[in-house]
Amino acid sequence: MLLTLRQIEVFRAVMRARTIVGAARDLGIAQPTVTKTVRRIEDICAFALFDRHGGRLTPTAEAHRLLGEVDIAFDQLEGALARALRLARADTGSLRLGASPSIGRVLIPRAAASLLTEHSGLSLHLDILSVSQVMEYLLSAQGEGAVTLFPILHAGIRSISVGTGKAVAVCPRDWPLASAARLSPSALAGVPIIVFEPQSVHGQVVDAVLRDGGVVPERTHVVRFAETAIALAEAGLGLAIVDRFSALAANRDAVALLPLDHPAQYEVFLHRNVERARSRLVQHFETALRAEILRIGADL
After folding, report:
1. Fewer beta carbons within 10 angstroms: which end of the chain, N or C?
2. Backbone angles phi, psi at 168, to 5 degrees
3. What DSSP element (H or E) covers 22?
Protein backbone atom coordinates (compact mmCIF):
# COMPACT_ATOMS: atom_id res chain seq x y z
CA MET A 1 0.00 0.00 0.00
CA LEU A 2 1.25 3.49 -0.89
CA LEU A 3 1.19 6.54 1.34
CA THR A 4 -1.36 9.22 0.50
CA LEU A 5 -0.37 12.83 -0.04
CA ARG A 6 -2.15 13.75 3.20
CA GLN A 7 -0.16 11.16 5.16
CA ILE A 8 3.07 12.43 3.64
CA GLU A 9 2.10 16.01 4.53
CA VAL A 10 1.53 14.97 8.17
CA PHE A 11 4.84 13.10 8.24
CA ARG A 12 6.74 16.14 6.99
CA ALA A 13 5.03 18.38 9.54
CA VAL A 14 5.99 16.04 12.39
CA MET A 15 9.58 15.87 11.15
CA ARG A 16 9.74 19.66 11.21
CA ALA A 17 8.03 20.21 14.57
CA ARG A 18 9.37 17.07 16.35
CA THR A 19 6.18 17.04 18.46
CA ILE A 20 2.60 15.97 17.80
CA VAL A 21 1.37 19.25 19.30
CA GLY A 22 3.54 21.35 17.01
CA ALA A 23 2.61 19.38 13.89
CA ALA A 24 -1.10 19.61 14.73
CA ARG A 25 -0.78 23.37 15.20
CA ASP A 26 1.09 23.83 11.91
CA LEU A 27 -1.46 21.79 9.98
CA GLY A 28 -4.50 23.19 11.79
CA ILE A 29 -5.83 19.76 12.72
CA ALA A 30 -6.47 17.88 15.99
CA GLN A 31 -3.61 16.18 17.85
CA PRO A 32 -5.31 12.76 17.85
CA THR A 33 -5.54 12.95 14.06
CA VAL A 34 -1.79 13.50 13.81
CA THR A 35 -1.09 10.64 16.23
CA LYS A 36 -3.38 8.28 14.34
CA THR A 37 -1.85 9.25 10.99
CA VAL A 38 1.72 8.68 12.21
CA ARG A 39 0.76 5.24 13.53
CA ARG A 40 -0.84 4.42 10.19
CA ILE A 41 2.27 5.49 8.30
CA GLU A 42 4.41 3.23 10.49
CA ASP A 43 2.05 0.34 9.85
CA ILE A 44 2.28 0.85 6.10
CA CYS A 45 6.09 1.23 6.15
CA ALA A 46 6.51 -1.64 8.63
CA PHE A 47 9.16 0.21 10.63
CA ALA A 48 9.25 2.80 13.40
CA LEU A 49 9.58 6.41 12.35
CA PHE A 50 10.17 7.98 15.75
CA ASP A 51 11.58 7.20 19.19
CA ARG A 52 9.23 8.77 21.75
CA HIS A 53 10.65 10.48 24.85
CA GLY A 54 8.54 12.71 27.13
CA GLY A 55 6.29 14.03 24.40
CA ARG A 56 9.11 14.68 21.94
CA LEU A 57 9.75 12.59 18.87
CA THR A 58 13.24 11.66 17.73
CA PRO A 59 13.27 10.53 14.08
CA THR A 60 14.84 7.19 13.36
CA ALA A 61 17.42 6.70 10.60
CA GLU A 62 14.64 5.21 8.46
CA ALA A 63 12.55 8.33 8.96
CA HIS A 64 15.40 10.54 7.75
CA ARG A 65 15.86 8.40 4.64
CA LEU A 66 12.12 8.52 3.97
CA LEU A 67 12.09 12.29 4.40
CA GLY A 68 14.89 12.65 1.86
CA GLU A 69 12.92 10.73 -0.75
CA VAL A 70 9.70 12.56 0.09
CA ASP A 71 11.34 15.99 -0.19
CA ILE A 72 12.70 15.14 -3.64
CA ALA A 73 9.26 14.01 -4.77
CA PHE A 74 7.59 17.14 -3.36
CA ASP A 75 10.13 19.41 -5.06
CA GLN A 76 9.39 17.73 -8.39
CA LEU A 77 5.66 17.96 -7.79
CA GLU A 78 5.83 21.65 -6.90
CA GLY A 79 7.91 22.30 -10.01
CA ALA A 80 5.43 20.47 -12.21
CA LEU A 81 2.51 22.39 -10.69
CA ALA A 82 4.30 25.70 -11.20
CA ARG A 83 4.95 24.88 -14.85
CA ALA A 84 1.35 23.82 -15.34
CA LEU A 85 0.09 27.05 -13.80
CA ARG A 86 2.33 29.13 -16.07
CA LEU A 87 0.99 27.32 -19.12
CA ALA A 88 -2.58 27.67 -17.89
CA ARG A 89 -2.11 31.41 -17.55
CA ALA A 90 -0.80 31.44 -21.16
CA ASP A 91 1.90 33.92 -20.14
CA THR A 92 4.81 31.63 -20.96
CA GLY A 93 5.50 28.46 -22.89
CA SER A 94 5.47 27.91 -26.63
CA LEU A 95 2.91 27.84 -29.41
CA ARG A 96 3.59 26.01 -32.66
CA LEU A 97 1.44 26.87 -35.66
CA GLY A 98 1.47 26.27 -39.39
CA ALA A 99 0.39 28.69 -42.11
CA SER A 100 0.13 28.73 -45.87
CA PRO A 101 2.57 31.10 -47.63
CA SER A 102 -0.16 33.54 -48.67
CA ILE A 103 -0.90 34.61 -45.11
CA GLY A 104 2.28 33.57 -43.35
CA ARG A 105 4.10 36.70 -44.52
CA VAL A 106 1.95 39.43 -42.91
CA LEU A 107 -1.29 38.26 -41.30
CA ILE A 108 0.12 35.59 -38.97
CA PRO A 109 3.11 37.68 -37.79
CA ARG A 110 0.80 40.60 -37.01
CA ALA A 111 -1.63 38.41 -35.09
CA ALA A 112 1.30 36.83 -33.24
CA ALA A 113 2.69 40.26 -32.36
CA SER A 114 -0.67 41.20 -30.87
CA LEU A 115 -0.72 37.94 -28.90
CA LEU A 116 2.79 38.49 -27.54
CA THR A 117 1.83 41.96 -26.38
CA GLU A 118 -0.49 40.29 -23.88
CA HIS A 119 1.74 37.24 -23.22
CA SER A 120 5.30 38.52 -23.40
CA GLY A 121 6.89 35.27 -22.19
CA LEU A 122 5.47 33.24 -25.07
CA SER A 123 7.69 31.66 -27.75
CA LEU A 124 6.23 31.16 -31.23
CA HIS A 125 7.22 28.39 -33.65
CA LEU A 126 5.82 29.21 -37.11
CA ASP A 127 5.91 26.64 -39.93
CA ILE A 128 5.19 27.80 -43.49
CA LEU A 129 3.44 24.94 -45.27
CA SER A 130 2.51 24.12 -48.84
CA VAL A 131 -1.07 23.05 -49.56
CA SER A 132 -0.01 19.40 -49.69
CA GLN A 133 1.70 19.60 -46.29
CA VAL A 134 -1.12 21.10 -44.22
CA MET A 135 -3.25 17.99 -43.65
CA GLU A 136 -0.34 15.77 -42.58
CA TYR A 137 0.96 18.55 -40.34
CA LEU A 138 -2.36 18.61 -38.48
CA LEU A 139 -3.05 14.88 -38.38
CA SER A 140 0.44 14.14 -37.03
CA ALA A 141 -0.06 16.87 -34.38
CA GLN A 142 3.18 18.62 -35.28
CA GLY A 143 1.58 21.92 -34.35
CA GLU A 144 -1.46 23.05 -32.38
CA GLY A 145 -3.13 24.47 -35.46
CA ALA A 146 -2.71 25.83 -38.96
CA VAL A 147 -4.10 28.81 -40.85
CA THR A 148 -4.92 28.77 -44.56
CA LEU A 149 -7.19 30.34 -47.16
CA PHE A 150 -9.00 27.06 -47.78
CA PRO A 151 -11.10 24.70 -45.64
CA ILE A 152 -10.08 21.10 -44.98
CA LEU A 153 -12.70 18.37 -45.31
CA HIS A 154 -11.48 15.56 -43.07
CA ALA A 155 -13.10 13.84 -40.09
CA GLY A 156 -9.97 14.33 -38.01
CA ILE A 157 -9.65 18.06 -38.65
CA ARG A 158 -11.90 20.92 -37.63
CA SER A 159 -11.83 24.04 -39.82
CA ILE A 160 -13.12 27.30 -38.34
CA SER A 161 -13.74 30.40 -40.45
CA VAL A 162 -12.11 33.35 -38.68
CA GLY A 163 -12.65 36.11 -41.21
CA THR A 164 -12.58 37.21 -44.82
CA GLY A 165 -10.62 39.60 -46.99
CA LYS A 166 -11.38 40.99 -50.43
CA ALA A 167 -9.26 40.51 -53.51
CA VAL A 168 -7.06 43.41 -54.62
CA ALA A 169 -5.16 44.21 -57.80
CA VAL A 170 -1.40 44.65 -57.54
CA CYS A 171 -0.49 46.92 -60.45
CA PRO A 172 2.98 48.16 -61.51
CA ARG A 173 3.16 51.76 -60.39
CA ASP A 174 4.31 53.11 -63.76
CA TRP A 175 1.26 51.70 -65.57
CA PRO A 176 -1.63 54.06 -66.39
CA LEU A 177 -4.01 51.79 -64.47
CA ALA A 178 -2.11 52.50 -61.26
CA SER A 179 -3.75 55.93 -60.95
CA ALA A 180 -7.26 54.49 -60.86
CA ALA A 181 -9.21 54.66 -57.61
CA ARG A 182 -10.80 51.28 -58.31
CA LEU A 183 -10.63 48.71 -61.09
CA SER A 184 -13.54 47.02 -62.78
CA PRO A 185 -12.88 43.57 -64.25
CA SER A 186 -13.50 44.90 -67.78
CA ALA A 187 -10.63 47.37 -67.35
CA LEU A 188 -8.22 44.43 -67.39
CA ALA A 189 -8.72 43.81 -71.12
CA GLY A 190 -5.42 43.91 -72.97
CA VAL A 191 -3.41 43.90 -69.72
CA PRO A 192 -0.76 41.21 -69.04
CA ILE A 193 -2.19 39.18 -66.16
CA ILE A 194 -0.38 36.98 -63.66
CA VAL A 195 -2.50 33.87 -63.16
CA PHE A 196 -2.41 30.82 -60.89
CA GLU A 197 -2.97 27.11 -61.24
CA PRO A 198 -6.74 26.82 -61.87
CA GLN A 199 -7.49 24.47 -58.93
CA SER A 200 -5.91 26.80 -56.37
CA VAL A 201 -7.84 29.33 -54.28
CA HIS A 202 -6.10 32.24 -55.98
CA GLY A 203 -6.62 30.68 -59.40
CA GLN A 204 -10.37 30.41 -58.82
CA VAL A 205 -10.62 34.05 -57.75
CA VAL A 206 -8.64 35.32 -60.75
CA ASP A 207 -10.75 33.21 -63.10
CA ALA A 208 -13.96 34.60 -61.57
CA VAL A 209 -12.81 38.21 -61.94
CA LEU A 210 -11.72 37.78 -65.56
CA ARG A 211 -14.83 35.79 -66.48
CA ASP A 212 -17.18 38.40 -65.01
CA GLY A 213 -15.33 41.13 -66.91
CA GLY A 214 -15.49 39.16 -70.16
CA VAL A 215 -11.70 39.32 -70.32
CA VAL A 216 -9.51 36.76 -72.05
CA PRO A 217 -5.92 37.88 -71.42
CA GLU A 218 -3.71 38.07 -74.47
CA ARG A 219 -0.67 37.39 -72.32
CA THR A 220 -0.32 35.66 -68.96
CA HIS A 221 2.40 34.54 -66.57
CA VAL A 222 1.65 31.48 -64.41
CA VAL A 223 2.72 31.15 -60.77
CA ARG A 224 1.85 28.96 -57.76
CA PHE A 225 2.08 31.44 -54.88
CA ALA A 226 0.76 34.93 -54.22
CA GLU A 227 4.25 36.06 -53.17
CA THR A 228 5.58 35.16 -56.61
CA ALA A 229 2.71 36.95 -58.32
CA ILE A 230 3.46 40.09 -56.33
CA ALA A 231 7.17 39.86 -57.16
CA LEU A 232 6.39 39.69 -60.88
CA ALA A 233 4.10 42.69 -60.56
CA GLU A 234 6.84 44.59 -58.73
CA ALA A 235 9.13 43.80 -61.67
CA GLY A 236 6.54 45.27 -64.07
CA LEU A 237 5.71 41.98 -65.79
CA GLY A 238 1.98 42.01 -65.20
CA LEU A 239 -0.95 42.77 -62.95
CA ALA A 240 -1.65 40.37 -60.09
CA ILE A 241 -4.92 39.70 -58.31
CA VAL A 242 -4.29 38.41 -54.80
CA ASP A 243 -5.75 38.42 -51.29
CA ARG A 244 -5.33 41.66 -49.37
CA PHE A 245 -3.31 39.87 -46.66
CA SER A 246 -0.58 38.93 -49.12
CA ALA A 247 -0.81 42.32 -50.83
CA LEU A 248 0.31 44.10 -47.65
CA ALA A 249 3.81 42.68 -48.16
CA ALA A 250 4.15 44.34 -51.59
CA ASN A 251 6.68 47.12 -52.21
CA ARG A 252 4.47 50.20 -52.49
CA ASP A 253 7.23 52.07 -54.35
CA ALA A 254 6.96 49.52 -57.17
CA VAL A 255 3.24 48.74 -57.21
CA ALA A 256 -0.15 50.24 -56.37
CA LEU A 257 -2.80 48.26 -54.53
CA LEU A 258 -6.19 48.84 -56.13
CA PRO A 259 -9.61 47.72 -54.86
CA LEU A 260 -11.65 45.70 -57.35
CA ASP A 261 -15.29 46.35 -58.26
CA HIS A 262 -15.99 42.68 -57.72
CA PRO A 263 -17.37 40.67 -54.79
CA ALA A 264 -14.51 38.12 -54.85
CA GLN A 265 -13.05 37.51 -51.44
CA TYR A 266 -10.88 35.06 -49.57
CA GLU A 267 -11.90 33.23 -46.41
CA VAL A 268 -9.37 32.55 -43.65
CA PHE A 269 -9.59 29.23 -41.79
CA LEU A 270 -8.01 28.11 -38.54
CA HIS A 271 -7.63 24.32 -38.43
CA ARG A 272 -6.86 21.94 -35.59
CA ASN A 273 -6.73 18.23 -34.92
CA VAL A 274 -10.05 17.23 -33.31
CA GLU A 275 -8.31 14.68 -31.08
CA ARG A 276 -6.04 17.33 -29.60
CA ALA A 277 -7.51 19.54 -26.89
CA ARG A 278 -7.49 23.22 -27.77
CA SER A 279 -5.16 25.07 -25.42
CA ARG A 280 -5.81 28.53 -24.02
CA LEU A 281 -2.92 29.80 -26.14
CA VAL A 282 -4.70 28.71 -29.31
CA GLN A 283 -7.89 30.36 -28.09
CA HIS A 284 -6.01 33.61 -27.45
CA PHE A 285 -4.35 33.34 -30.86
CA GLU A 286 -7.73 32.88 -32.54
CA THR A 287 -8.98 36.06 -30.88
CA ALA A 288 -5.88 37.98 -32.00
CA LEU A 289 -6.20 36.57 -35.53
CA ARG A 290 -9.84 37.62 -35.87
CA ALA A 291 -9.00 41.13 -34.65
CA GLU A 292 -6.07 41.46 -37.05
CA ILE A 293 -8.21 40.37 -40.02
CA LEU A 294 -10.68 43.14 -39.18
CA ARG A 295 -7.87 45.69 -38.86
CA ILE A 296 -6.38 44.72 -42.21
CA GLY A 297 -9.82 44.94 -43.79
CA ALA A 298 -10.07 48.53 -42.61
CA ASP A 299 -6.57 49.43 -43.89
CA LEU A 300 -7.19 48.88 -47.60
Report:
1. N
2. -130, 155
3. helix 20-27
CA separation for the pair 281, 270 (Å, rounded):
14
Angle 151-154-160 from CA coordinates, rounded to 5°: 40
Pairing of strands 56-59, 50-53: antiparallel
Is residue 189 within 8 Å of residue 215, measured between CB atoms? yes
Q: Are residues 114 and 260 in the same domain?
A: no
pTM higher than 0.85: no
User: What is the CB neighbour count within 10 angstroms for residue 4?
Assistant: 13
One domain, residues 147 and 295: yes
d(C-alpha 232, C-alpha 207), whole Å: 18
Within 8 A by CB and 6+ apart from 57, the residues are 14, 18, 19, 20, 50, 51
Low-confidence ranges of the chain (pLDDT < 50): 90
116-152 pLDDT per residue, tens: 888 878 888 999 998 889 999 999 989 999 999 999 9
Domain count, the chain: 3
Report whether 189 contacts 213 (CB < 8 A).
Answer: yes
